[in-house]
């Protein structure tokens, strides 16, 4: 459950998606915000796990983020049910490929939106919830490095 770049997480999910074609229609996406105002995206794949991407929009088209696989293969029914609640929303996420500079990874589809992702996080273990704090610290570091914390004059 290590925090990795957005590109690395997207590549991991892409490989799992491509290698399990029978599960493709069962993938679920849940979007919402955390208590600090960062965006959370959770991707759920039956028998494969749950991934969390946390980020902030740098521009209307660019997400500064990081991610981690927060739950391994065994996912309880409550998490699966929570992933299917909320208002329908289209989503799209493009990330540069972590190895090939001339390629991009694109994830798009219909997911669900909830105001907050707290209910889902309550069902994760202590170690899995700890990843959320690591992701938040990574985003805060990226904000400083990219100058996104600079106040407007």
What does this structure look like?
This protein has 153 residues and is an alpha+beta fold. Strands 1-5-4-3-2-7-6 form a seven-stranded mixed beta sheet. The N and C termini lie far apart (40 Å). The mean pLDDT is 86.
Helix/strand structural class: alpha+beta
Q: List the domain count as a whole number.
A: 1
**Helical fraction:** 25-40%
Give the integer mean of the pLDDT values.
86
Shape: globular
Strand content: 35-45%
Number of strands: 7
Task: Give me the number of helical elements.
Answer: 4
- How many strands, what sense, and barrel or not for the largest sheet? 7 strands, mixed
How are helices and strands ordered from N to C? EHEEEEHEEHH
Rg measurement, Å:
15 Å
Distance between the termini: 40 Å
Unreliable stretches, pLDDT < 50, 5 or more residues? none
Spatial sequence of strands, sheet with the most strands: 1-5-4-3-2-7-6
Structure summary:
Helix content is 30%, strand content 39%.
Tags for this entry?
153 residues, seven-stranded mixed beta sheet, 4 helices, alpha+beta
Helix and strand arrangement:
Layout: E1 4-5, H1 6-19, E2 28-33, E3 39-45, E4 49-59, E5 62-71, H2 77-83, E6 87-96, E7 104-116, H3 118-121, H4 126-146
Parallel strand pairs: 2-7
Antiparallel strand pairs: 1-5, 2-3, 3-4, 4-5, 6-7
